[in-house]
């Protein structure tokens, strides 16, 4: 084939591939443009760092060393081998054409040999994981499609090696052959037969056509994430992971009012991009406490279901047809209500999919647009709106836990305290959780801090209503509390509830509330370090349970462990820190009936397996859930808040 004929053939191949790829890419772009707006601008520096570590560095994938390394080898290989695509396109036209400078550099062709081998190793290992090991996280994934992609990748690097080897064998290589040990060895095995000239043309064209086929197939497959993942990571969340995007109820145009996700056109463009970025790796599914305890929810299958609905209905919606309801067309009611909003899925996801936001938006529509939610949760929503707490207790009883402690209850006009103790509903009204409040207040007063509480002026932060999907009730509570805190002149808040901690510190900023919010374990650890609290070294074996809203959503991991290390001998559970396992109360599940096996019992068994005598917690909901879990499993562990354990060591007479 002459150079002109080769050039024309290549142009035809590129044009066909370009049209097929471009048509699909343009359709997907138009579908994403259907999405509702969400602000993901700003924080360019942080976004660039995330891109470098998560995408280029494969940080999240490498949390699981073996499968992470397998993927990293393939990914890094393609990054290194990208210039060879241009080399092959030029070489397909004329055997003497290559990239200026780089195509003549022996060191680069050495890298090509090395990374071709590494990519093949990665492909073989990936096949081994899928076909031999068969981890449960792949349940529901499109494995045949993955096999095809892996096969195409293997063909691409194999034909590249064969092309380079045939160039060396013919003596037309543009680089010193000694720099390519593998290609050189293959060239030696090829010999010097007359077939080599034809073989060299076959190898380079097979390489080019496989690459173009791969390119065309990508936007139609789950490996669409190769093109979208980097974009999705860039537009990922840069603020607190525990924060939910607020809904705007004050829009002038009623048609623009968004009540969560009812149909695909209610989804934000970021949520649509999420669905197109899913790799179906199942890491989210593997860590989901709902899935682990036999419930219907799989974060992976949730995103896949939304993606399938997007692809099935998107073109028709672009043509003017009305979309169908996402629940139950894409996901079932049970899936929506199984979630405990623990964020384990988001933490594991290597492409920054925000599963919790999807679920909460589905709940928002069901609750606010259709009044459709588990019946038992209705009582909680009514009590938050009517009594300002999900227990339905009178506000006059809010400060009863503090009787006799000498804690100042702030009245309107009183000077602001050094630290406001935000007690939260659980520690105000539940007997088991009250022990934590009493211990915390006792320790802060013992350390000489000026501490005050709002008493009956404190109202539920609205967290359970918000996670349930009742955004309107949440915003009512938020604005009321922000006004109260503003009137009291409060600037520093300590709270023993991670849910209150997250809401006050990460979500009230959207409603004008800006405070320094610390968790009680952070303040107590600080007081211990400063010598304002003194506790003897303890030796009793203690295992500490990380609250999801403390460790994973808000990065508080070290402080509670500093306290536990002082008062006992810490024993870690298998799942701890930011990869903790939920107690089962999140996502308003404290007020919902649980289907399947109990999450709190699963966690209680894991705690008992450490051999510890005490299960330390730092959350009133964890206290209640894990205490129930221990009782149900007969584990015999004592469940106690870190503050209670510290108070027993510092001021034994005050221990509860």
What gyration radius follows from the Cα positions, in whole Å? 29 Å
Strand line-up of the largest beta sheet: 1-3-2-4-5
Between the first and last Cα atoms, what is the distance in angstroms? 89 Å
Shape: elongated
Number of helices: 28
Q: At the first level of CATH, what is the class of the domain at 3-33 and 64-220?
A: Mainly Alpha
CATH topology of the domain at 3-33 and 64-220: Fumarate Reductase Cytochrome B subunit
CATH architecture level-2 label of the domain at 3-33 and 64-220: Up-down Bundle
Major sheet summary line: 5 strands, parallel
Q: Kindly report the oligomeric state of this protein.
A: single chain
Given as residue ranges, the uncertain stretches (5+ residues, pLDDT < 50) are none
Computed structural class: mainly alpha
Number of strands: 9
Give the % helix. 55-70%
Tell me what portion of residues adopts beta-strand conformation: under 5%
Chain-averaged pLDDT: 96
Description:
The protein is mainly alpha-helical and about 650 residues long. Among the domains are: about 5-35 and about 65-220, Fumarate Reductase Cytochrome B subunit, CATH 1.20.950; about 255-370, Orthogonal Bundle (Fumarate Reductase Iron-sulfur Protein, Chain B, domain 2); about 530-655, Rossmann fold, CATH 3.40.50. The protein contains 28 helices and 9 strands. The chain has helices spanning about 5-35, 45-55, 65-95, 105-135, 145-170, 180-190, 195-215, 225-235, 270-275, 285, 290, 300-320, 325-330, 335-340, 345-350, 355-370, 375-385, 425-430, 430-445, 465-470, 470-490, 500-505, 520-530, 550, 560-565, 600-610, 620-635, 640-650; strands at about 410, 420, 450-455, 490-495, 515-520, 540-545, 570, 615, 640. The strands form 2 sheets. The chain has a 5-stranded parallel β-sheet with strand order 1-3-2-4-5, with helices on both faces. Helix 5 packs antiparallel against helix 7, helix 23 (about 520-530) crosses helix 25 and helix 26 (about 600-610) packs across helix 27. The termini are far apart. The mean pLDDT is about 95.
